[in-house]
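Replying to the earlier thread about multi-chain prediction with a worked example.

Input:
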Amino acid sequence: MSQEAEKNKKTLIVIGGGITGLSTALTWALNHNIKKEPVLLIEKEPKTGGYVTSYEREGFIFDTCQMLPNISELVDYFGLELEFKAFKGYYMRIFLVNPETDEVKVIELPSGTEVFKNMLMKKYPQNAKQIRKFLDYSRAMYLELFKLKIEPTFIEILKLLFTCPKIIRNASKTFKEYFDQFGITEPEVKEIFDVFADFSALPPKYVSALVPISALNSLLDGAFRTKEPFIDFPKKLEERYLNLGGKLLLNTKVEKIIVENDQVRGVEIAGGKKIYADYVVTTIDPKVSMKKLVGLDVIRKLDKKYAQKIDDVKMSTSAFNINLGLSENVDLAGLGLDCGFNIITTGGNTYDRLFDAYEAGEIGFSDNLFHIAVICPSLTTGSKPNITIHMTPMALGEWKKMRKSDPEKYNEMKQKWADFFIDKVEKYLIPDLRKNVLVTDISTPATYARFSGSPTGSLFDMAPYTDNFGRTRLKMRTPIKGLFQPKFVHGVFGCLLGGMQVNDMIINRKIMNGNARFKA
Ligand SMILES: Cc1cc2nc3c(=O)[nH]c(=O)nc-3n(C[C@H](O)[C@H](O)[C@H](O)COP(=O)(O)OP(=O)(O)OC[C@H]3O[C@@H](n4cnc5c(N)ncnc54)[C@H](O)[C@@H]3O)c2cc1C
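Result:
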């Protein structure tokens, strides 16, 4: 290493300035004397935030991210000043559509575990006992998460048998298998709970049971949105990090992770410059990190199973997103849109069937089969009226190729699908929507792939199938000494936690005592 390189050497390099990278870098800055143990965050784009961003189109501010559980403990830990709005009354509505008759049934989901439970038991008395059992059991299982360790010792594993029996019993179950144990027969109740599986962008028949149970319980404790456009959140994380003396390189793409003698040494950035470090934490698509930046051969030499796992891991789906700037004539509040999410769905096994099509590389949406989320950011932020229409699952399929080789066709396809989804929203939720649209901005999987650097444009990183979740997930600690990948997150909360967990690993449990969840 040259003298110059030695002088510029960091203790930690973090690749990727999304929420996971910001959390990793900031947690480091909070726990080290940064002058002695410097940290560098490297981001390929001109701004941090990754998938959590806001952008302006003809005076309208659009957000990507939409809803959060209660993250106040983490926000306090990071020392951020952020204002959140909690959705009162209901935080979600499900519009259950019968496409044959066009009949629509609206189900409102309130926050608060007991309120929610009582509402369901009253509404579906024939399943009241089963609903209580399901919710009580699931709550207890969710709370066991706080006793889980990320890298448990042998003694801790033995202890888990007593402290986390429900998690252990259900660890290998899909949500469908888990749910079916409780004997709930009311199709509408099933519909409500299945929505939490679909939140993970995996259908109930595939998703690991603990994922929807965590989403359900954390949202019952409160559903929130930032009062400012969502980009405020990464901006505040970045500001805090820089104020603590952390360093940031924007517009800089990491091309290679340098490994020598089974130990990470640093990174090589576009243009060939090398920056050395004792630790590297990569927060970009794990397949890209491991296959492209490190090289699978390097990993295979050290740990065949880990290398195989990287190959086998399935990434989560991408999305199709439509942001609409609207005229003041639409009474968004009057239509009840001041809540976290509205789901318009044909119900039954809609999401399973959409996912089957997705897996076959097709788009399964049709007049008889749709599952559409509608969100209204402007009622929280106070910006010019807008809504977001968000769909999963949507595969990268031909989108990327089309955008490159035939932009006209790409735009045609984009518009065709946007029209399809806008029509559904107009029909079932916002009358006269179309004539009040002033600005349309459409994102496809190609947009997400380009923006995040994930070749599949995956929204939620690795998909939480039962064979890649909990104990079976691709480990954060890679076989290369000093190299970590705290990916496998599910949304912003998981990303924040991932950044803290990886620091906890590096500095021997000094932050979270090895726990999976942070408790102040
Ligand atoms: C449309 C949409 C809506 C969503 N809605 C919600 C929601 O309502 N609630 C929720 O909790 N979550 C939501 N999510 C998911 C959430 O935004 C993500 O889980 C989270 O932001 C991922 O953060 P990350 O840092 O792990 O990854 P990313 O955000 O993908 O960040 C990775 C960063 O690495 C950078 N990068 C990539 N390659 C390189 C390289 N070689 N060198 C340097 N930098 C590189 C990228 O530019 C990017 O900034 C949504 C996502 C999308 C796309």
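The mean pLDDT is 96.

Feel free to reuse this layout for your own posts.
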